[in-house]
Amino acid sequence: MGAEGIVWELASELGFDLVGVAPPAPPPAAARLEAWLGAGLQGGLDWMERERPRLLDPKQLLPDARSIVMVGLVHARPAVALGDGARVARYAAGRDYHNVLGKKLRRLRRRLTERGLLGASRQVVDAGPLMERSHAARAGLGFESKAANLLHHRFGPWFFLGGVLLDLELEPSQTPAPGSCGTCRACIDACPTGAILEAGVVDAGRCISYHTIENPGPAPLELRAKFGAWVFGCDVCSEVCPFGQRAPDRGERFGTHAAVETGRLVDWLCAPAEGHGVRFLGSPLTRTTRGGLARNAAIALGNRPSEEGRDALLGALEDPEWRVRDAALWALARGHRAEAGVPEALDRALARPVDAGEREGARATRAAAEGPA
Ligand code: SF4
Ligand code: SF4
Predict the structure, then answer these.
(1) 101 and 18 in contact (C-beta within 8 Å)?
(2) N or C: the chain end with fewer CB closer than 10 Å?
(3) Which residues are near ligand 1 (CB < 6 Å)?
(4) Which residues are part of the catalytic machinery?
C-alpha cells in the first residue's frame, strides 16, 4: 500500500469521515481572502490581517511541508435549545471539538511517525493560520458555498475540519467534490442580519456568530434585535441549506455538555465569574468568557422578554463588566421599558458616576433600544 493509502486507512481508523490531500501551495481562495481583508470585512478578527502571509502560504507554517492532509468529522445533530428556548449553535453544544480533533490528529501523526513515514509535521484545528476550507475544497472534501462554508453533498455544512502539514510527499486528491449551490440563495435570504453580502462573501462585522463568540466588546446596537434567541453562534444559514438535511445524526460523538443541557439565560446572565471555567470545562463556550456569555444572554433576554428575565436584567445593571451592563440596559429598554420600576432603574443606571465615554454609550444604547424596532 502506498503512503496515500496508509494515510486514508489510519484516518478512517481514527473515525474521520472525510480525508483528502492538498498540495502545500497557496490556497485556491487566496485572491478572495485578499479582497475580503482589503474590504475590511473581517470585523475584529485582526489576527487574520497579521497572519495574512501564513494564511496565503502554508509553507510558512512548515517550511518542509510536502503535502496537506485535510480531514472532516461529522457533527450533524438536531437543533439545540436551552431550557428557555435560547439557541446554541449545534457544533458547540457538546465536547470541545478542538480537543477531539486535536487528539485524533496527534494520533494520526504519531502512527505515521511510528511507521517511519513522517519527520516534521504541524496540525491545525480551526484556530490556526491555515485557510482550512479552501485547502479542504482542493483536497476534495466539499465545495465552497455562497454562505462561505464548505458543503458536502451528503453531510452539508455539518462537519469539522482539521489539517496536518506533513513533510511526506503525497499525491494530491484528483476528484473535486460533487455539488454546487447552483441558483439557490436560501442562506442569503434567510440570514437575519444580511451578513452574506454576495455569494461567498460574509461580512464578519454583521455576523451573529462572530458577535456572540469572537467580539470581546459590546455588540452593534443596530444588530442586537436581529440576534433573536441566539446566545452562542448561529446556524440559520446552515439550517436552511438544502445540503445536509438528511445528514446522519452524529450527536453522540460530542454529546451535550451539562452546562448546555441545564442552561438557562437568566442563569448565564447572573452566574458569577468565579467557577465559570469549571462550569464550562471542556465546552467550546469557554471561548466567549463569562462576560461574553452574560452579554449574549442579556441580549437574548431583551429579544424574548419575560418576568424572570426582567428581574435578572435589573440585577445585571450592577454587573462588574461594562459590556454586560450595556447589554442589560439595552434589553430592559427594548423589552420592558413600560413596566413598573424599569424607567427609574434605567435613569439610575445612566446617572451613575461612570466615566464620560461609558455615560455617552449608555445614553446611545437606551435611545437605540427605545427607538423604532
Ligand atoms: S451565521 Fe447567521 S448571521 Fe452569520 S452569515 Fe450565517 S445566518 Fe448570517
Ligand atoms: S443555502 Fe443554498 S446558496 Fe446557501 S450554501 Fe446552501 S446551497 Fe448554497
Answers:
(1) no
(2) C
(3) 147, 191-193, 195-196, 202, 207-209, 234, 236-237
(4) 126
Q: What does the alpha-carbon distance between residue 100 and residue 115 come to, in Å, rounded to a whole number?
A: 23
pLDDT on residue 361: 87
Residue 253: C-alpha distances to residues 78, 190, 257 (Å): 13, 29, 12
Mutate to test the pocket of ligand 1, among 149, 193, 241 (most ligand atoms within 8 A of CB): 193
Contacts of 232 (CB under 8 A, 6+ apart): 88, 89, 92, 212, 213, 285, 288, 293, 296
User: If DSSP codes are grouped into helix, strand and coil, which group holds residue 164?
Assistant: strand
Question: What residues of the chain score a pLDDT lower than 50?
Answer: none
Q: Which residue, among 86, 112, 244, 215, has the nearest Cα to 167 in the 3D structure? A: 112
pTM: 0.95
CA distances to 212, 224, 373 from 300, in Å: 11, 8, 15
Cα separation, 146 vs 260, whole angstroms:
30
pLDDT at residue 372, as a whole number? 63
